[in-house]
Amino acid sequence: MSQTRPRAEFPVDGLPAGDAVRLMKTMLVPRPIAWVGSRSAEGVANLAPHSFFTMVSNEPPILVVSSTGRKDTLTNVEAMGQFTVSIIDRALAEAANATSAVVGPEVDEFALAGLEAEPGVAVDAPRVAASPAVFECVLDRTVEAGDGVVMFGRVVHLAVAEDVLVTDARGYRLPDARRLDPVTRLGRNEWGGLGEVFAFDRPGA
Hints:
Blueprint: H1 19-27, E1 31-32, E2 34-39, E3 45-50, E4 53-57, E5 62-68, H2 72-80, E6 82-86, H3 93-98, H4 109-112, E7 117-119, E8 126-128, E9 133-145, E10 148-160, E11 165-167, E12 173-175, H5 177-180, E13 184-185, E14 191-192
Antiparallel strand pairs: 1-13, 2-3, 2-6, 4-5, 5-10, 6-9, 7-8, 9-10, 11-12, 13-14
């Protein structure tokens, strides 16, 4: 039996404006969400979710967050050179969605969403007190890519809730995915939970 599946083909150059992006966002799922905490040069706290987010380097540890267009997060990070990334668990999903509202730079999204902010340990940027895990970063560089600007953050501090940490069979004390309970972005207005967790050992490992 053939393993080829019937497909609809979409040449990107021939699609109406926005259609390619909508297709891509519903294909690249699930996407982890960086809940980025920053502070403006005037001292106003900012908090916003970004789903163009991943880790790109082991040594030094570097993660990337992409801003589509020039948003307050990017302005603050460029001005202050530091930021935090809080993980969003299921209990925080609605509050995270609230912080995606388009508001002026004078608005503190922590207050807008009814969230408690706590100061970073190694950076002067706020983090979500209720988050199960946080990265604290200093800006390494920014790179323009199409209509986006990619922020490379060198991770200088990590904070994890005690009730999320588990010592595994190798003796490593690490977050347990089920306890972390992260939410993800899907397509349209959809979000997702962790779902089934399964494991494979790498061949030859």
